Each structure stands twice: as C-alpha cells, then as structure tokens.
C-alpha cells in the first residue's frame, strides 16, 4: 500500500472539493434555466386620455353634466421563459386616488418561448362619471405635476397574476 504524504492528502482533498463545487455550480445554472415559476413580465404605456382633458383644463362642465373618462393603453407582455405561456385573458382597472375610473379587458393569448406581445387596451367608464371633488384634486395635482394614475392588470390562467403601475398623468 502506498504511503500518502501530507501534500497528497491536500491534493486529494482539493480534487474532491473541486468536483463537488463544479457539480454544485452546474446544478445551480441548470435550475435557473429550467425554473418553471418565472412570471410573465409586463409594462404599460398611457397613449391617450379622453373625457378628462376639458375638465382638467378648468373648462369643467356645469352641475349635472358627467365626465366619462376613457384611456388608451399599450400593454407589453414579455415571456422570458423557455416554454410557451397561455393566459385566458384578463382585466385592466384605471384608478385615481383609489377611485376606479375605467375598466378594460385583455383578450386570451398564447405567448411563445422568449417572445413578446403588445396589446392595445381601451379602458372606458360605464358609470355616471367622475365625482367633482376628484376632478378638482386631479386638476390641482396636474398643475403641480404630481398627478398619477394607478393601473392594475390581472391575467387569468392556471395561476392568476396581478400587476400594478403608477403612471404620470
């Protein structure tokens, strides 16, 4: 039987450690690629607003005249996953100071692996209009340059996903 010198014990330990380290690193890289729980990433852009601009320009309608806002949005949905994703449509809610202003819907879609999709969404109000106090708050905050809409999106599918943004108005 061969006698191992102290340097041989060191080399043997080093090679065992290096082998385990390589396996650990390879497993970590592999699990990052095959991670099925990667969520869909999304962003939103406010393209247009109607029904609020004359009101916010201090041309407020008289009492009894309601303002029905409508918002044109572009929703970009990115699938960074290596598998296709399917969602059963969804909904979009546009709010200001916690008060819902308009609702829209997103059609069902299938998104290929590592692909992106842009959807135009028209969010409209079917309600009676925007309360006067909220219109005054919007006009004041818009003059100060701090007015922001809260936009929430919920996608349907095997696992419901929710997204929210604050968009300058």
UniProtKB/TrEMBL annotation:
For this UniProt record, give its keywords in alphabetical order, as a comma-separated list.
Membrane, Transmembrane, Transmembrane helix
What is the name listed in the Swiss-Prot or TrEMBL entry for this protein? Late embryogenesis abundant protein LEA-2 subgroup domain-containing protein
Organism lineage? Eukaryota, Viridiplantae, Streptophyta, Embryophyta, Tracheophyta
What PANTHER family would the database entry show? OS01G0712500 PROTEIN, OS04G0515000 PROTEIN
List where the protein spans the membrane. Answer: 12-34
């Amino acid at each position: 039987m061969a006698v191992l010198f102290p340097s041989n014990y060191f080399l043997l330990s080093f090679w065992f450690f290096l082998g385990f380290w390589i396996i650990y690193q390879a497993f970590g890289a592999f699990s990052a690629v095959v991670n099925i729980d990667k969520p869909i990433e999304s962003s939103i852009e406010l393209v247009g607003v109607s029904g609020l601009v004359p009101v916010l320009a201090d041309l407020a309608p008289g009492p009894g005249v309601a303002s029905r806002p409508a918002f044109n949005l572009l929703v970009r949905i990115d699938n960074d996953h290596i598998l296709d994703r399917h969602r059963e449509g969804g909904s979009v809610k546009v709010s200001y100071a916690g008060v819902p202003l308009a609702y829209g819907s997103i059609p069902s879609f299938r998104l290929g692996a590592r692909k992106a999709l842009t959807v135009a969404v028209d969010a409209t109000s079917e309600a009676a209009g925007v309360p006067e106090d909220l219109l005054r708050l919007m006009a004041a905050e818009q003059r100060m340059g701090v007015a922001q809409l809260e936009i929430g999106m919920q996608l349907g599918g095997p696992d419901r996903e929710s997204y929210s943004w604050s968009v300058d108005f």
